[in-house]
Amino acid sequence: MSSVLENLVNQPYQHGFVTDIESDTAAKGLSEDTIRFISAKKNEPEWLLEFRLKAYRHWLTMTEPKWPNVKYPKIDFQDIIYYSAPKPKKLKSMDEVDPELLKTFEKLGVPMNERAKLAGVAVDVIFDSVSVATTYKQKLADVGIIFCSISEAVREHPELVRQYMGSVVPAGDNYYAALNSAVFTDGSFCFIPKGVKCPMELSTYFRINTESSGQFERTLIIAEEGSHVSYLEGCTAPKFDTNQLHAAVVELVAMDNAEIKYSTVQNWYAGDENGIGGIYNFVTKRGLCKGRNSKISWTQVETGSAITWKYPSCVLLGDDSIGEFYSVALTNHHQQADTGTKMVHIGKNTRSRIISKGISAGVSNNSYRGLVKIGQKAENARNYSQCDSMLIGSKCGANTFPYIQVQNSSSKVEHEATTSKIGEEQLFYFASRGIGAEEAVSMIINGFCRDVFQQLPMEFAVEATKLLGMKLEGSVG
Amino acid sequence: MIHKDAKVLLEVKGLRAKVSGTEIVKGLDLVVRAGEVHAIMGPNGSGKSTFAKALAGHPAYQVSGGTVAFEGKNLFEMTPEARSRAGLFLGFQYPVEIPGVSNSAFLRLAYNTVQAARGKDELDPLEFDDYVRAKMKLLEMDAAFLDRSVNEGFSGGEKKRNEILQMALLEPRLAILDETDSGLDIDALRVVASGVNRLVTADNAVVLVTHYQRMLNYIVPDYVHVMGSGRIIKTGGKALAEELEARGYDWVKAA
């Protein structure tokens, strides 16, 4: 037995890492041919190709949104490679990893065995983390939860994907959602069957293949009647990517009495201190509270990307359904963020709650943009919004753009906003008690963000706290 | 308590300091030994507060001349936080509000930071809670202050008590109390003064910066200095403060 095992272990890795790059990469540019190429590469069914082509044709008739409070050079959509097969992992050992990145892991307290994976080192050698992923997958399968990549879902559960994809964010919803619908390459799929409470926090982290989901990611989460799931996206460790434009789509569907909690920590490359480089993050995230008494809760901590443009939203269709949005958006140096939420009340007695905390430092610009819409039939709908901005230094900007549309007189909408500034006097007060500027800022920021951090899963909250401190290093004093 | 051979804590020689380009302190000399209580008095604009803030290292106050040794070390080579860790304390005239930061977390961080600098044990939240509550009792402060944000919505008197509470926690070698008596009613003044009195030992010293002598009825100074035009122009004992109260400041200037 042991010799059999030994042979197995000592076998050379058969699948190899080197693939013929030429044949696995689409030519630059976007056309119907590109889309057919992607669809063919992925062996997709005809209906999905049609979905993509329809989206593409619609996209051609659209123009880029100009209303966000952000500035960037025009994007040349013909200068992008829309399909590239999963890249071989470049690094062979931790010795090859950028020491700066390792230092960051150290500061964040990322466990040793996870650092390699995050740094892009081939993890095949790390048995622990692989077996953890496998164990989790088995545990989920035992209760009937499907958690896999979108590509796998298209193959294994086409009826579910076909039924729900595009049902919350239609292919032609907006410019970037249409683009995503035409060219998305991969993402996550999650299905929680009726009455099942997911036994653990679902994280993309434990889904193998996650590294290759690429710049046009697509996520679909369905919570059947009475089910419950908490989903974590992203990671507090920095994510480097050579693709500048990212346009993801996330769709959530909650049936009667179902609850979905979606948490994001985004720390993509933000460009350097002079604003050179960095990711454009143009995301469409929307949840549909389809059933009665359903609940969708978005929690986001946005610290990365050169430009963030995202409005995780809730459509409250089912009576008594609840939508929540908790957000911390931090911008430093030349970063720009235009982010917020939309709460669309359609059903009776629907409730929504918005807590947004914007922090601007350096010469960055941070805008909250939110829509609260109460439909004609939304009897007794309630909304409470609180939008707080904090400025660090005197060269940054913060804006709040609340839009409120009410068509039902029995509803109640509240909006509160504050702006504060971390000033010299506060920092001197801390200093005169022995506390340095960085610790002082971190304490003030954590106090400011407490209402949002409380919504994050425990370990995430601890990491997010450290992350904000790190992001602001050197921005004061 | 004056002991001529007690250790020198603070030695200021020819200090000059500016605020937004204007020189306010113009050649100030002062020696403070362990065990002493000093009062610095003087009319508005005489440079009292500027002197206090320059010692603590406020970034808006630039030192333009002179030297200050704190326990033999050059004070101006230390950052404001290092000065605090070394045992210098400034009680603020107008303590700033810090929304969102709980007073208990702030006090504990300050306490632990200074403890660590002294090589002493830090306290965990539960231990600290017991410790701080005992100190608050002495200052007749309600424990509800712990859960509120630092100074936010505190009345003038509550802010001053919070300052003295910090002094009690940090146990400084030298405390400079800038107009701690202003804004206090007579009962609060008595409580704050008795708190300060309890903290004065043979090893530390207090410098009271004040406009009026009423606080000196409760905290009896060993020395009273009068400031005028950015310098100390007269030094005496407790009797000088009473004379100032009776005659005002003009006669000192004239002399």
Structure, explained:
The complex is a heterodimer of chains A (477) and B (255). With 477 residues, chain A is an alpha/beta fold. Chain A has one domain. Chain A is built from 13 helices and 19 strands. Chain A has helices at residues 2-10, 21-24, 32-41, 46-60, 99-108, 112-119, 127-142, 150-156, 158-164, 175-183, 424-431, 437-453, 458-471, and strands at 146-149, 188-192, 202-203, 218-223, 228-234, 245-246, 249-254, 259-266, 280-289, 295-302, 307-310, 313-316, 322-331, 336-345, 351-360, 365-374, 382-392, 397-406, 412-422. Chain A is globular, with a radius of gyration of 23 Å. The termini of chain A are far apart. Chain B has 255 residues and is an alpha/beta fold. Chain B has a single domain (8-254), classed as P-loop containing nucleotide triphosphate hydrolases (Rossmann fold), CATH 3.40.50.300. Chain B is built from eight helices and twelve strands. In chain B, the strands form three sheets. In chain B, strands 6-9-10-3-11-12 form a six-stranded mixed β-sheet, sandwiched between helices. Chain B is globular. Classes of the chains: A alpha/beta (477), B alpha/beta (255). Chains A and B meet through α11 and α12 of A and α2, β7 and α3 of B.
